[in-house]
Structure formats: structure tokens, C-alpha cells
Amino acid sequence: xxxxxxxxAYLIVALLLIGFVLIQxxxxxxxxxxxxxxxxxxxxxxxxxxxxxxxxxxxxxxxFFLISLILGNLAADKExxxxxxxxLGAPAxxxxxxxxxxxxxxxxxxxxxxDTDVPN
Length: 120
Description:
The chain has 120 residues and is mostly helical. It has a domain at 10-26 and 42-77. Helices cover 48% and strands 0% of the residues. The chain has helices at residues 2-23, 29-34, 48-77. Helix 1 (2-23) runs antiparallel to helix 3. The longest helix is centred in the middle third of the chain and has 30 residues, at 48-77.
């Protein structure tokens, strides 16, 4: 149960981290904004976006790293089912089917013999 919850959280954190990295502006974007490029008009204000976006990206990256370590540790502790290909020297155990039982024992069995009474 914990493993599945962590997988879902891992997926959500990964998608959010990708989104926040793609939303951020590059370091050279400030120069275009100073000449009226329109980059200064952001949702978070001209100076507040850097701190918010940087901190959120750092928190998401830390969560991504920690969940990766936890998932790796949980996956390493799981026991695998034994593989049938590991021991090829021993014969495989086959499951035998039960004996065939007639459907209705009261009905006599007839053999299909060609009719010899039919004239040619």
C-alpha cells in the first residue's frame, strides 16, 4: 500500500517539477524586460517570481530525490518470486490433470462399426 502511494506521489512531484522548470525564465530574460520586452509583467510581480519559483523548484527537487531513495529502498527489500529458469538442471514439475471421468455412467458405450447389412 505504501509503495503504491509513493509511486503516485512520485509521479505528481515529477510532473510539477517539470512544469515549474518549464515556466521559469532564463537568466538572459531580464535584459529584454529592461528594454520593454514585456517580461516584467508576470503573475507574481517583477521581483517576486524569482524567489517563489526558485524555492518551489528546490522543494520539489528535494522531494523528488527523497521519494526516489525511499522507493529504491522499498524495491530492494522486496523478495522476488523464484524464477523457473534459475535451476535448469532439475526437471520441471508438471501438474497432472485428473483422470477422465465419463459424463454419464448409465449410458452404455457403443463402438462405431460400419454397417454390413447395407446392400451395395
